[in-house]
Each structure stands twice: as C-alpha cells, then as structure tokens.
Predict the structure.
Amino acid sequence: MRFNYRYIVILLLCSVGFESLLASDTLSYTLQQCRDLALTSGISAKSQEETRLAAEYSRKAALAAMFPRITANAAYMWNSANVHLLANSTDFSFGTATVHSDGTASFKWSSESALGKIETAAQGTIFEESVKNLETNVGQKVADAYKQIYDKLSPDLRHIFVAQVGVTQPIYVGGRLIQMYKIAKATENIATIEAESKHNDIIYSVDEAYWRVVSVAKKKELAEQYYQLLCQLETDVKEALDEGLVTQSDLLKVTTKRGEASVKKLQAENGLTLSNMALAQLCGLPLATTFVLDESALTETSLPSDSVNTESAVAERSELRLMEEAQKIAKSNAMLAAAGLQPNIVASAGYVYTNPNADNGFSTNWDGKGFFSAGVVVNVPIAHADDILRYKAAKHAANAMALKTEETRELLTLQTTQANQKLTEAQQKITLARLTQDNAAEVLRMAQESFEAGLITASELMQAQTAWLAAASDLVDAQVEAKTTETQLRKYLGKLQ
C-alpha cells in the first residue's frame, strides 16, 4: 500500500485557491504598518495629546502669573433721587433758612436777632413798616444765598460713570508663585511621559495581536495538514480493509481521529477570525478585515542578555519617571504650605476717572481730570496654627512619595531582570522545539514508510502524526513567545521603536 502524496498536494492547492477567492479583500501588512495605523487612528493617542497640550498651557499660565496683571473696569449707576449735602432747613443763631420743594427759599429771623429786636421796638411807631420791609428784603437775600450754597452742595449723582485702569504686581508671596510653576511644569512632564507610555503600550498591544494572528494562522495551516493526512490515512485504511489487511476497528479509530482533527481545524479557523478582528480593532480598521502578515521576522530575536544595562534602563522607565515627577509635586506642595507662613507683598497702581468728577466740585462735564493711585500691601501672618499643621502634613506626604519612588525603582529592576531571563529562556525553547519538530518529522516519515510496508498499524502512524502536530505547534508557540517577550523587554529598556 503506497502513501499518495499527490492527492494531498492537489487538495492543498485547491484549498489555497478557494481561500484566495474568498479573501479578495485581504490586506497585506507588515508589523510596522500595523503599529503606524494604531498610533495614527487610535482615539486614546489623540486624547493623550490633548491632555499634554492642556498641561503645557497650564504651565504657561503659572509662568504668566509672575508678571504684572493689567485690568480695565467700567461701571454705570442710575439713582432715582439726588444727593444733598446740606439740610433743606438749617437753624442759625439769627434765624432759620429753608429751601422748599418747589425750588424757592425763605428765611425767618429769630426774635433774638438784631433785626428781630428792632422790629419789636418799632412796633406801633412810624418805623414799623420800614423795619418789616428791611427785614423781609435782607431775609430774602440770606435765603437766596443759602439756596445757592444748597444747590452747589447738591451734586447730580443720578447718573454715575466710573472707569479705572490698574496694574497689580506681586513682589513677594512666600515663593508661592514659583512653587505653582514647578507643579505645573511637573504636571506637563507627567502628561508627556504618559503620552510616551501610551505610545509604547499601543505598540506592545499591536505586537501581541500581530504575532497572535501569525500564530493562529500557522496553527490553522498545521491543523489543515494534519486533517489532510488523516483523510488520506482513512482512504488507505479503507482500501486495506477491502483487501482484508486491517479490521473494522482500525478504520473506526482513524475515522474518529479524523473527526477530532476536523473539529480542531474549525477551532483554528474561528480563532483566526477572532484574532484578525482584535488586530483590526487596534489598527482602526473594519473588524471584517482579513490580514496577510509578514512572518519573516518570526524566527529572529535579538537583545541577548549581555547587551542589557538594567540600571540605566530602569532610570528611563516611564513608571519611575512618573514617580519622580510626583515626588517633585509633593515637595512643591510642602513649600506651598510653608508659603502660608511667609509675608506677602503686593504692589498696585491705577488711574480712575469718574463722572460726576470729584476733581471739579462734582461737575457732570466730561472735561474733568481723573487721578492716579499707587500703593503697596504687606500681609504678615503671626499666629496661623492651621498653616503650620498643613506644612507638616505636606512634608510627611513628600517623604512617603520618596519612599514609594525608591520601592518602584527596585520593583522595576526586578521586572526588567525577569524579562531578560524570560527572553533567554524563550530562545532556548525555540532551539529545543525546532530539534523536537525535526525529530518528529523524521519519525513521521519513517512511520509512513513502515505503514506502507505493513510493519506498523494505523494507530501507531496516528501517534506519529499527533506527535508531529504537537511538536510543530510547540515550535510556533515558542517563536511567538520569544517575539512577544522581545517586545516586552524592548519596552522595559526604552528601545521600543
């Protein structure tokens, strides 16, 4: 009985041709192309850039707070009643002057005044009428004079306009502005580091999804080859059964194994579909996209253990840099709390113009003059127990952040060392898996020849086929593990490009 290789080749060619027809929309991408797509089309990357820009402008605002602030203000007020600085009626030692609501004025002499005494003495004489006329005329003149003073001291405040331009310059505020700028600068650095970290996370996620697709695609090919081998074996066993060389039980074992291989092939196809969808989602492509990926780099790994500088790599890790910036913020917060215990000195200057204009007797004309003002305000805290306690709390928080930073450094050193060792182990796994696959392929070849010569049973041949499939799958797993581990180590070393 001869093993028919031509039948297998024809089936494989037919299956490849059929798949090529179905995959007319299939796209070919390299790893770098998938990375670029994910970095340019991802919403998270754009959101991180907006966050970085917001932090940048906050830092510029903190710097601008150290410079003079110029402000212009204007106001208008309407009053239903006017203002009178003198009373409507005023008592003097010689009489009472009154301004009436109709705008007229009158004056009543006191009986104790000189004219009052003269009027009393002239009663019943020929001088009485003359004295009354004199009293009336003089009193009216006094009333008119009082009314003029009353009107002058009644400024028109029904319409009030005020305009002011001022400049404020902080001179010393306990170092508060400098610490606020340092906090804003550290916040900007954090946003930049997070953007870089997000960039690396996206690349790492794309690499994982990329090599997962490659892995599942290769396992799908192996599952199809394994299925075709069992189909051919089933055909050969049927022919042997017809010739009476094998039993019905042998045929049932092969048929059962072929059914299991069919299920594995279907699982591999479904797994490839899901893996393609995951990669398409990361790249911002339609989920139905089918990829043809470049597998040429699958057998190549780099960064051997002797090229790793763990100490310098850890110093550049985004996690440690974030902790260091957070430590700077904690220190600045402590200094901000201490600023509440320091004197504050602020200078200001301005120009004010009003209508009615106080420069010219509350005149409502617009030709008046405004006035300049300048001053310095000094605030000295004396007993602020709450600020002292806040400073102590902020200082302990800064110490805690320093300890967390050191702990993070140690953990990252351990993580990088483990990743380096894991890559070395993955490279050794590839060597062992490739040797195992070569041995399994040789064993399969010898088993096929022995089966054709009738020296072994179908069950023994199926065992060799299963061992070959397992060895080939292990090799693919080892290669993909090495590539993902390499990407992870490059990420830890800051060499992920």
